[in-house]
User: Fold these one by one.
Assistant:
Number 1:
Amino acid sequence: MRFDIVTIFPEFFTSILAHGVMRRAIASQLVSVETHDLRNFTHDRHRTVDDRPFGGGEGMVLKPEPITEAIESLGIAPKSTRDTARESVILLSAQGTPFTQSVARRLATLDRVVLLCGRYEGVDERVNILHCDRELSIGDYVLSGGELAAAVIIDAAMRLIPGVLGNEASSAYESFGPAQSELNAQFSPEHGAPPLSTHGSGGLLDYPHYTRPAEFRGLAIPDVLAGGNHDQIRRWRRERALEKTLRNRPDLLEKAELSQEDRRFLRSLQF
Ligand code: SAM
């Protein structure tokens, strides 16, 4: 899979791509990430990428010509004939649809993703109309540029590409993961199914994790985790995931796959 980033700050990505999972994925050639300096697609002495907004108002706007030339230099199909099951051109924007784990899962199935980083007041809207398949926002706040958003999207999508984490179950059995029924179909014991004491989050938040030492600053790990009873551990983890989701992200419960037992447990928390 290949990511192309169009930006006025290509050097921004140097350190992000040089660490941890991203570095390993690139080194093992499962993924490539190319940055493209927008100023290389200008033709004036000052390498101008922005101009004042029509209609007046604050700030500057990224001009359409350099971004269009940058996109056209990438060898990606024009929007009218693009196969969006393989390639996608994405505009990073606070006005975009929310970037979620399920969008990351979908991006991880593509061959090519082009990410356009805005700056200043944003990008001339004709770039969006002419070239982009979607606008994505990484959250309800305004960043000063699309670079951090691009890095977030690449990180989240890249770790879902088969082979990048080594064990595919690691990225499936975590917060916002697919439903347990989907996971059961995907992971048989001989294909990396996790220990019996784990379960898919099914769209919930992950359960809390503990490691050694068993006691730290007067806080002991929950007894059940040391007991070795996989069914009890599984139930304990499920309840903690439900509890945490109810407390921090109750909106997720509306879409989560919940058993009768889960619902009974949630009701017991609410009274
Ligand atoms: N005038 C824009 C607005 O009010 O929506 C904000 C422009 S922002 C200062 C500059 C650039 O940062 C945007 O063009 C976009 O590329 C990026 N950006 C800002 N917030 C973002 C977010 N939440 N998600 C993705 N990109 C964002």
Note: The mean pLDDT is 95.
Number 2:
Amino acid sequence: MAAAILDGKAIAQQIELEIKERVAAFQAKTGRQPGLAAVLVGEDPASQVYVRNKERACGRMGIASFMHRLPADTTAEGLLALVAQLNADPAVSGILVQLPLPNGIDQTLILDAIDPSKDVDCFHPHNVGLVSQGRPRFLPCTPHGVMQILHRSGISAAGKHAVVIGRSEIVGKPMAMMLMQKDSTCGSSAANATVTVCHSRTADMATICRTADILIAAIGKPKFVTADMVKPGAAVIDVGINRTDDGLCGDVDFDSVKEVASAITPVPGGVGPLTIVMLMENTLRAAEWQAE
Ligand code: GUN
């Protein structure tokens, strides 16, 4: 039987409605609007699309958007000065520096300079540490989106074997951390899994993937996960967004894997829409804490 298609767009719209209500309540209580500052350095086309989508999402959800577009030859000192200004600005609840930064700018130096209480990407070491200890201040947006898809689709991870393909700081590592947490410490019931992380140096990856009840692909290689790597009845979550000559595609060979899996996310329309709403949620959370 073909897999159920997990509609990330519909789930994101549902969460968006919940956020809109919370933003309205926040404004009624404080007379203030949450605000997200986004910093884009250079002209990377994919980054420009992401940042524009973030601006639009802010507009839909009643969050003020402060856009800072800087030339590609911006220096680290210039960027640090802007981050310091945004850290000090009470109208800015959350700060996002779009990655990748141009060659020559030390990414870690810039991300570590963001005030952890405004770090809505959840990249600062303080916030990564809190997630790993199961007492998060913010949840990283894409892994949180995956947890919401599982949770809201009735897919429990408890006691299941979850295999994460990819060990990036943005997705793979925090994803594994969140799946292994005890109930609800990371924002949803999709937890308590037994987790294996595969990566580019893993031997016999297909055999490991075939033992997964929940398979999460975040490796950045088009159609990497094929049907022979999937256990019949597994839930498959595709985090990949790859631009190919044939257009956008995920890390999963959707057409073959959907015949084996019990549930699967499409690309586009799967995890992508969740990442942006979880960023908006983090911005609202930041504003709520700052108003306390
Ligand atoms: N570039 C690709 N994904 C992300 C993300 O989640 N946050 C930021 N800041 N940049 C990115």
Note: The chain is about 40% helix and 15% strand.
Number 3:
Amino acid sequence: MRPSQKTRAGQGRPLAVLPGSFDPITNGHLDIIARSLSVFDEVVVAILVNLEKSPLFTVEERVAIIRELYKGEPRVRIDTFSGLLVHYAEAIGAQVIVRGLRAISDFEYEFKMALMNRRLSPDVETVFMMPAEGYSYVSSRLVKEVFQLGGTVSELVPPMVERRLRDKYGSERPAPPPARPARRLSRKRR
Ligand code: PNS
């Protein structure tokens, strides 16, 4: 934000928007939302309505999941948007776009997007936040793939999301293999 730029209502901290697909929301997203709340008074979680993609969860389902997760937190607002993100940010009076940066592999795409957004709307600033290390490899795409193929994702998504994944994939999901006894490492002879 430029020093001359007014914050929301002329005082306090700026309004932040956390845009994304959230298909589904992961613990990594939750971590970024928590970090955003330590810096900003209010965070708008904005779900992109992308008619070209075929998501696992409908926009309505994603809104319902995130609303349920934050029902006791008035500082988190859930909304949807289409079109340019900066136009949406301007329309709701958000001066900051928050994006999670997990690894160097995210950087190039995020860097280009931030600079393009700045070009489109110089008054909207992008802020990057790093999630806890344990979430640095977590993405919605991997969560879906692992779950669909029978892996466990219970530490990567909130329990409600895991239940919704179960509802979606249901019987087509292979059962996880039976637990194997721990393998004992053979000692090397000296
Ligand atoms: O969770 P995602 O899929 O990484 O989020 C990407 C998102 C929604 C932030 C990005 O695709 C976006 O902002 N789309 C809106 C269209 C837009 O503004 N495009 C120009 C970006 S430079």
Note: Confidence is low (pLDDT under 50) at residues 1-6.
Number 4:
Amino acid sequence: MADIYIPDRDRYTKMPYQRCGRSGLKLPLISLGIWHNFGDNSDFGVQAQMLRTAFDLGITHFDAANNYGPPPWSAEINLGKHLKNDFSAHRDELLISTKAGYFGWEGPYGDWGSRKYLMASLDRSLKNLGLDYVDIFYHHRASDDDPIEETMGALADIVRQGKALYVGISNYNPVQAVKAEAELNKHHMHCLICQPRYSMLYRNPEKAGLFETLDELGIGSISYSPLERGMLTSKYLSGKFDKPLTDQQQAQLKIAVQLNEIAKTRGQSLSQMALCYNLRKVTSVLIGASRPEQITENAGALKNLAFEEEELAVIENLIG
Ligand code: NDP
């Protein structure tokens, strides 16, 4: 007999939801991405358990992109199957996002930011996901070559066509974000959200003033790789690795070991503290996982979100 998923009735008591910029949309403080561990090389049953675990914890937002796999596109196709199998009665409770902007297919129309690429890619994504619309469609990276007027015009038309409810930008710096918002405004549209890479060990967006700019523009934010792809978890703390660490990873690990000691004093794991640190700046943290237990552990971050001034001073001294 098929395994029928019945979501936890208490799921909405477990997760705070935060307004995304000045929009009407609230995001869960923790969101789940499918960049890794949802391609055809990963166990489909484990994928299902991760999505179920997330939803049971009140994680209502799943983030995809056209190129996620491997192979590219397969993570979207797998997510589509899971949505059909487990979440078809819950579509209105979910935020599904996808993106285009990195390599999608060969030739001049399968990359960067042309209207041709974005429109065609989203059509493929919707087929893959088995959805009529996504909640958020992102331009995945800023393009120096393509006119921002065209890229943002395409996003505005995508919303008008009903294929996305909101649009966002990813990997845009503050200047590019200002330009994107100005272009969308010409179409009486607003950029919902910006998705930068941001972690305790990668603070470039913070140092560049991205979060202040987004606040001024009323744009929300969701940080990707908030656990620095596992460096800010127990994964490397054991000292056992599948392959030798790079020089940069070795330097990061030294800091992670010290951060872990601070996390212990807060009664948290390193990953939990890393997420709390991010949430001082962003609307939602976008985690990845390979096992359901990781998601459960990470959601434990919500029990102790606040930092003492002295704690922050010690942390900032360490991470620079
Ligand atoms: P993280 O920094 O959260 O790293 C996730 C990895 O950390 C997991 O795959 C797992 O590694 C490890 N991990 C997580 N929790 C734990 C835990 N509690 N204990 C031990 N290990 C843990 O994020 P990702 O880099 O995976 O990115 C998250 C999402 O962000 C993506 O899925 C995607 O949606 C988005 N993203 C967006 C990009 C963009 O350009 N817009 C680029 C990159 C990501 P392991 O698998 O080895 O177990």
Note: The domain at 14-235+278-305 is CATH 3.20.20.100 (TIM Barrel).
